[in-house]
From TrEMBL:
It comes from the Eukaryota. GO terms for cellular component: cytoplasm; heterotrimeric G-protein complex. The keyword rRNA-binding does not apply. Mg(2+) binds at T112. One of its GO terms (biological process) is adenylate cyclase-modulating G protein-coupled receptor signaling pathway. Coiled coil: none annotated. One of its GO terms (molecular function) is metal ion binding. GTP binds at residues 106-112, 135-139, 204-207. The keyword rRNA processing does not apply. Keywords: GTP-binding, Magnesium, Metal-binding, Nucleotide-binding, Transducer. This is Uncharacterized protein. It holds the Pfam family G-alpha.
Length: 296
């Protein structure tokens, strides 16, 4: 993060921290992938991350799409180093200090490219069911590939980040993330191929959202939003749901009785929560399929 001379709160007043920033900036080796972070470098990062000017700078830049997992990893940077020899292949197992935890693993950004298919088995009403989950990438460059999987879809799971209400799109910094999410939902929900397909809308990153909304008012996204509710998670969630419902109801009237829209508040990094969300999604999916086939 570059120091911003024009705003005093972004300045690094601490000499030690300033010296460390300079030394890191000069160390080109740390900007490559698969780099080994040594204890010395990790300690430098920790010292810099805890500096007031850097924290203020981060709060400012996070609106422009700093990855949501950044604080998670930087808050424990002093644990994320490998204490070993110069080359990767020379490191002995006992010298490897950092082994990713399950939580670390879940927080790694793993951008989907193309179309990735998974098979999930799930027990519903004492019977084993097999589901095919087709994962597509959310980035703009990926969306043109979606059309290839639009046929023969049992249910659409649309995941949006509640936490992004103060962020701008990664694809277009002039567009707010929420506006982009509403717009993409409109395009998918109004596609005639889905006129009788149920949608599950996952309002995700509820953990990060609930923390952020305490300090960052929702009026940053919509200045006309009720001022008395601007830091109220429930009020904001109601607003978000209402926006999606309005888009849903804008679709042709004759589609309404053929399909339904379900909301779930989710935290993808909470495994037990996701297991029960997916299980209840599967139950609804099967019941709805049976209803449509007039079995129930
Ligand atoms: N704290 C928290 N982090 C989350 C949650 N859901 C996803 N993340 C993190 O958000 C980042 C993005 O996750 P991805 O799985 O790459 O996101 P994606 O939506 O599939 O992105 P594309 O593949 O580009 O479409 C990762 O670092 C995840 O760990 C959540 O509910 N809470
Ligand atoms: Mg993905």
């Amino acid at each position: 993060m570059r120091e911003r001379g024009s705003n005093k709160s972004f300045q690094i007043n601490d000499d030690e921290c300033r010296r460390l920033v300079d030394s890191i900036a000069k160390d080109n080796s740390i900007f490559f992938h698969n780099v080994i972070i040594r204890k010395e470098t990790a300690t430098k990062f920790e010292r810099i991350w805890n500096c007031k000017g850097i924290q203020n700078t981060f709060e400012h830049f996070r609106k422009q799409h700093v990855m949501d997992n950044t604080p998670y990893f930087l808050n424990q940077i002093s644990q994320l180093y490998i204490n070993g020899d110069d080359q990767c292949n020379k490191i002995k197992r006992e010298d490897m200090r950092y082994v990713p935890s399950w939580d670390d693993y879940l927080r790694v950004r793993d951008q989907t490219t193309g179309v990735v298919t998974y098979t999930i088995t799930s027990k519903v009403q004492n019977r084993n069911w097999m589901f095919r989950l087709i994962d597509v990438g959310g980035q703009k460059s990926e969306r043109k590939k979606w059309v290839n999987v639009f046929h023969d879809v049992g249910v659409v799971v649309y995941v949006m980040s509640l936490n992004a209400y103060d962020q701008m799109s990664n694809d277009d910094p002039r567009v707010k993330c929420f506006d982009e999410a509403f717009d993409v939902f409109r395009q998918v929900a109004s596609n005639p191929v889905f006129q009788s397909t149920d949608f599950f809308l996952f309002l995700n990153k509820i953990d990060l959202f609930e923390e952020k909304i305490k300090d960052v008012p929702f009026t940053l996204f919509d200045s006309s939003f009720d001022d008395s509710l601007k830091n109220d998670p429930t009020g904001v969630i109601q607003y978000v749901k209402a926006r999606y419902k309005a888009i849903w109801n804008d679709c042709p009237e004759e589609w309404q009785e053929k399909r339904a829209l379900f909301f779930h508040l989710t935290c993808s990094v909470n495994t037990s929560m996701m297991q029960s969300t997916i299980a209840s999604t599967n139950v609804v999916l099967i019941k709805r399929k049976m209803q449509k086939a007039s079995i129930l």
